[in-house]
Amino acid sequence: xxxxxxxxxxxxxxxxxxxxxxxxxxxxxxxxxIQEQKKGFFGFGAKKAEVEVTVIEKMPISEKSLxxxxxKLEEIQEKSELLPKKEEEEEAIPALSxxxxxQETKNYxxxxxxxxxxxxxxxxxxxxxxxxxxxxxxxxxxxLIGKRGQTLNSLQQLAQLVANxxxxxxxxxxxxxxxxxxxxxxxxxxxxxRMADKAIxxxxxxxxxxxxxxxxxxxxxxxxxxxxxxxxxxxKDPNRYLVIEPHK
Length: 248
Prior knowledge:
Elements: E1 3-8, H1 11-22, E2 29-35, E3 49-55, H2 63-79, H3 86-92, H4 98-115, E4 122-128, E5 131-137, H5 141-145, H6 150-166, E6 172-177, H7 180-202, E7 206-207, H8 213-223, E8 229-234, E9 241-246
Parallel strand pairs: 5-6
Antiparallel strand pairs: 1-3, 2-3, 4-5, 7-9, 8-9
Helix pairs in contact: 2-6, 4-6, 7-8
Family: Belongs to the KhpB RNA-binding protein family.
Protein name: RNA-binding protein KhpB
Subcellular location: Cytoplasm
């Protein structure tokens, strides 16, 4: 088990330092605050913040199994007939109620999980207007999430297609597992600030790795308050990436 105790001027500073040393992201660790920072009185009694950061141990998954999972999802996407022409769709599949469309989506996700040899998947959902959130629970949740959420994102795209194939109105689908989406957003927001600071420190452009559009949007929004940098996206999906440059 990888674990590190780190001090810093603030709690967030200590966490960031620990993440860099462990070479992990925030959603991959558990954090225990040992001590909050103390300013002291006239310089006396000041104390740095101290945190204990532990890498979360997940079920070991071989590179081979991850590759097989990715290949299986790609094969499903290629062979899937989830996007027929509108005329064909209307003739072949009658529009269902939202409840039925949601159930069809659950059934589809279950079938994908079974193909990944995940037999204990539990799916619940919450609907707010046109948006439907599906929550996935399993002992093998790491396989459902995948490296940096890649498997979860692929499943979400497929679920979106299935829902709108059967629904009588447009539905926006989001899949989540172990609160990954919220943890990922926090990680992206912190990463955005660190990368922006790096752009200012070096005076040059800083480039992120390719990521989905909604993740790029999170970073754009997180940095929209900063007047010292500019952000824009380059490339084409699925390899589109975000760039930060000092404001000129």
